[in-house]
Every structure is written in structure tokens, then in C-alpha cells.
Design goal:
Length: 200
């Protein structure tokens, strides 16, 4: 049985913050791989502020091409309907019946996990790795983890990742003002953004 991490996000664009969490999860918990899962975004949100599913998937594929422990799933990005994490994980479970999944979350998402669609079932049926995000208190995250473990017998592991302070807003602002994004995104993502004129 392989242990696989799943990191979902809009990845608009994929940046060093995402890369840091994925690499740290592989290293700390000896995962065989991490599946990068670009999410679907409603059509009315796509425009100047948001890249299309195709562009976001292409950027993530460039990252996976450079790292053998990354794989890309387009199950959400190219799905016909709004995606729910629980349904997506159940579909992936059918695809990888012999493997164990760890859904990788930032602290901001983790604190509201119980309120997600089928949050109770999510916590009872799947395992989680929680990565530190800037601006959140460790004690609040640990208290939430303890409560969810007691209530749902949930498997929750805390990731001791280095905090990388990057935001998609900062990246987009830099592009529009002509500043470099070299320190914020991997080189292949920077090139793709430039070649396709994204976020201008």
C-alpha cells in the first residue's frame, strides 16, 4: 500500500508556497507521491483576475514534469459540476483502491473543515496533513485537531513545514506593475505566465 498526499487548490498560479507544502509532506511523512488537484472555478470568476482551467492545469503539469513524486489529476478542473472534496476523494479512492490518501490542507481551510460538504464523513473516512500557513496561531490549529480527533476519531498529522509567505494576489500585483515574480513562482510557471500573457 502506498501513502499518497492530495493537495488541492485553484493554483492561480502555482507558487513556492504550494511547492513548499507538497515537498515537506513527502519528506516528513514519507509519502510515495503527491497528487496536485487543480479545482474547478465558476465561469463568471474567470477573466482578468483568474486564469482558465486549461492554463492552471498546464502550469501544474509543468511542475509535475520536473518532479517524479508529483502527479496531476484533472478530475475537478475538467469536471462538469461544482466539485466537493468528499466526492472527489471517493472517486480517487476507486481509482487507487489499494492506497491510503492524506488530504493536505492549510490551517485556514482546516479550521472550517467540519463545516464542509459531508465534513463529518470526510473526517471519519480520510486522513489529513495540516500545513502551517502565515497568520494562524499554532495553538488554535492544535486545539481544533485535538477536538476533531476526539469527536470523529480522525487521523490528523501536523506538518512542520517552513512558512513561505507568497500569495496569488501579490504575484498578480507584481505582474501588473511590471515587477519580477522570480522569487514567488518556479521558473517554468514564470515562463508560462509570460508566454501566455496571464494576469495582465
Amino acid at each position: 500500500m502506498s501513502e499518497i498526499g492530495i493537495l488541492g487548490g485553484t493554483f492561480d498560479p502555482f507558487h513556492f508556497g504550494h511547492l513548499s507544502i507538497a515537498e515537506a509532506a513527502i519528506k516528513e511523512f514519507d509519502l510515495s507521491e503527491v497528487i496536485l488537484l487543480p479545482t474547478k472555478v465558476q465561469p463568471f470568476k474567470i477573466g482578468r483576475e483568474m486564469a482558465s482551467e486549461e492554463d492552471r492545469v498546464n502550469m501544474v503539469r509543468l511542475i509535475a514534469k520536473k518532479n517524479k513524486q508529483f502527479r496531476v489529476s484533472t478530475i475537478e478542473a475538467y469536471g462538469q459540476r461544482v466539485s466537493y472534496t468528499y466526492k472527489t476523494l471517493k472517486l480517487l479512492q476507486k481509482e487507487y483502491p489499494d492506497d491510503k490518501f492524506y488530504f493536505i490542507l492549510g490551517t485556514d481551510s482546516f479550521l472550517t473543515l467540519e463545516e464542509w460538504f459531508k465534513g463529518k464523513e470526510l473526517l471519519q473516512e480520510f486522513a489529513f496533513i495540516i500545513g502551517v500557513r502565515p497568520g494562524y496561531k499554532t495553538s488554535e490549529t492544535e486545539d481544533t485537531a485535538k477536538r476533531l480527533k476526539e469527536r470523529y476519531n480522525a487521523e490528523i498529522k501536523m506538518l512542520h513545514n517552513e512558512i513561505v509567505e507568497v500569495s496569488s494576489t501579490e504575484i498578480k500585483n507584481n505582474i501588473r506593475s511590471g515587477k519580477s515574480i522570480r522569487d514567488l513562482v518556479p521558473l517554468q510557471v514564470e515562463r508560462y505566465i509570460d508566454e501566455h500573457g496571464l494576469y495582465k
